[in-house]
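Question thread 4412

I'm putting together a teaching handout and wanted feedback from people who do this every day. The idea is simple: show students a protein as raw sequence, then show them the structure tokens that encode its fold, then repeat with a second protein so they can compare. Below is the first pair exactly as I plan to print it.
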Amino acid sequence: MGISDEAFKLEDWKMTKDRIKHFDDVLMRTRVEGIPIATALQAAAFVTAKDVGYIQTKIPFIGDPISLPVFSLIILASLAYLVPVLLLDILHFVLLKKAVEHAYDLEKQLGNKIQITHKLTSFWLTLLHTVGAYLIYGMIFAAGIYFAFFGANEILTPLKTLATGGH
């Protein structure tokens, strides 16, 4: 005797809820571990700014080399690290949303006998989650770009003066 359609859908729903938990765990781990590492790298740029941050380095580029202070390179390294973190975040968030939509559909097909996904899912919560997460990434990227390219002189000039005794 085969499995009934309703039992099959219930097993599918259980596996989907397991996947939802997995994607949520990966998403939170990505954010909780990835974002602090990127901001720690930015903090390292400020910590080392007085000692080595103002030293200029030449980076080969198309045509002429680009001269950047070590401070800017450390900030740019933090942003380079943050890009794959953001991409992993987006991937797992999309997978999480797809799994939630699938569980939601299965609950409807089961005649709303199970309603946990219906009770916990809303357009506004998803929107708030999305906007909040990407505002955090946006602020880190904006601060990093500002400090790497525009704010380095304002930060490094006084530090260089302190480090060299005004000479």
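The second pair follows. I'd like the answer to focus on this one:
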Amino acid sequence: MAGYSTNFCALVLDSFWQGDHLSTPETHDAVYPGLNERRNRVAPLSDCTNRLTRRQLLTVSAAGAVNLFPLSAEARDDEHVGKPFLKELGFWDYTTPGAGGMEAFEKNDYLSLLDDMAQAGMNSLMIFVKWLTTGYRSRLDFLDQSPENLNIVSDNGLVRFAIEEANKRNIKVWLGAVATYFDVRKFQSKPYRVITRMSGFSLPFQVGIFDADTPELIERIVRMFEELAIQFPGIGGFCVELEGAGAEVGHRIPLYDAWAKEKGYPPFEQLGHPFDPRTFDVSPWREYTTFSRLRVLRAVEEAIRAKGFQGELAMICETGRKTYATGQEVDLKQYHAQLPHWAGITYEYEKWDHRYAMMDFCLDQPKKEGLKVYYLPRGVMTWGMPWPLPITLEQSWQYDMEDILHFQPDGVWWFGCGTANEGAHVSLKRLEQVGYRDGVAARRALIKSTGALRKALKR
């Protein structure tokens, strides 16, 4: 920033990077010990600086800091100029116990959601049926089966109904599953960590977290996705989530050393410690753990293609932040080079913290590597500790809309479509505390406030 005054540079840097705090999922504490040590909150970014795009920053910088002021809502909505860029636009939610969201949805709830989406011009819905818990009827003995889960009680009839009704409205349905979290009572392999709570809510049992090199893990993941391909015909895509797959675990060290020797990389004992592929840049470990992930993805693809599935495939590429640092867990170059037909899904739920750095990791860098990028922002989502959050849901939606229009991902799913119960991802009580009578009212407020995105959707 040569040529600018010291005071102006300090203002810009402080505006971009203030936030000596964290509010990350509790799984981050579980997967990466010590990540949440510092939670001293400071004031969120001002509306003035938090609403500036890079182009706007460069425009106003010549006039000095005195000219930094927020644009009007109309100006922000008209920022997108040119051809539509969004291939898919819709919602992302879970049928799984403890999550909230679709967990307690009945047929009328699905119909209300799908009608709202169709009226808003949305064309895509991601349904996660496996999270830390399981939200579909399974015949696999290593998956938990709650007798109170509505979709399980319906023998998957509710989700099949939603898929059928979505297809009638030209809404593409994806199915997602987290493949690294399992009930420790039912999974023979030993987890490297166990968690019992999420975002202030107790889980129904102890959940184990498993790395991608865990013995028997790939075989069980394959069986799960084979079952999903059979149980849910009519879906257009699968998402594989491997959160926690990159952790440093003792049994992985000889596996890494063998791989590193072949690649000409330093042995494990020469890597920096402790390392965390989300926030501390140890490139060889990131490359190795991505290599391990890709073995899982190839096995899943081979299995579901053999079952007749011909739709799209995607993996979540986890991002993270801490004081003065942001990071991407996946080696994006390797991922795209090895599996060019797989898309990457990135997320950002905390727009008050490292906003532009996170957009760089979530959208700019994946696009530069050639990946098809789907973005997952906070929707009707009350996850986070403490509550309420530093900014309102409405502010979060507005900031994300601005960033989406600027960075132009291939698709957007708003995380959270409403809820009919209490859960870690979305809570009725928390929604009521911020002025919404229910999940439907919050969903419709989100749709209304982000209407400009419809103009960006390819038809």
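Top answer:
Good format. For the second protein you could add a caption like this: Residues 79-456 form a domain with the TIM Barrel fold (CATH 3.20.20.80). Residues 1-75 have pLDDT under 50 and may be disordered.
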